[in-house]
Amino acid sequence: MPFDIEHLTRAVKTQLETVMAAKLDAVEAEWAAIDPLTLPDVVTWYYGHKPTVLELPSASFPFVATIPARRATVRTGYGWGYQDQNQVVYVDWFVVGADETTADKLCSRYAQALLAAVQAQRAYYGYDQLDFEPGIELSEASRHPKTAAANMFNDAEVDFIKMGRMTLEFGGNG
């Protein structure tokens, strides 16, 4: 079997880029009467892991990355030349808000929209999602400099950043 994780990860990224704006609009509309908050469209789409993401200026966010994480084989009795694989793709997102509460809400609502986006399609590049409800983890909000030259002791030059991670598991043989 080929090493398909890059193709699979790019297929997830393409799906998110295609439907995310509509999913954000739907989540925004759902919360409009309860606790309104504008959900900005993704500013930066990224393939892979970017270790310097926290150093980016606030104008680079929201930031969504699709990351090929791992591939494991599944032992089956099918014989040589045919073997199922389990592949894992992370979807990481980072949002910034003027305060901690706004960052918390943005991150949670982004999780809701991203979940709807991946649930809208079961198979990617010939692999089926194994979990309709994939795992989601959210970080704590942290102070973040708005620009590279920001003074972290000046509240006007600081906002808050929060990250989420969705773990997508896929199975099959491509």
Could you explain how this protein is built, in words?
- The chain is built from two helices and eight strands; from the N terminus they run αβββαβββββ.
- It is α+β, with helices and mostly antiparallel strands.
- The protein has one domain: Alpha-Beta Plaits.
- Strands 1, 2, 3, 4, 5, 6, 7 and 8 form an eight-stranded mixed β-sheet that branches.
- Helix 1 crosses helix 2.
- It starts with a helix and ends with a strand.
Question: How would you concisely characterize the structure shown here?
Answer:
By secondary structure, the protein is of the alpha+beta class. Helix content is 27%, strand content 32%.
Strand content: 25-35%
Question: What is the percent of helical residues?
Answer: 25-40%
Low-confidence stretches: none
From the 3D coordinates, which CATH architecture would you assign? Answer: 2-Layer Sandwich
Please give the count of helices.
Answer: 2
How many angstroms separate the termini? 8 Å
Radius of gyration: 18 Å
Overall average pLDDT: 93
Number of distinct beta strands: 8
Determine and state the CATH class.
Alpha Beta
The helix-and-strand class reads alpha+beta
Order of helices and strands: HEEEHEEEEE
* CATH topology (level 3) name: Alpha-Beta Plaits
Number of domains: 1
Largest sheet, strands/sense/barrel: 8 strands, mixed
Dominant shape: elongated
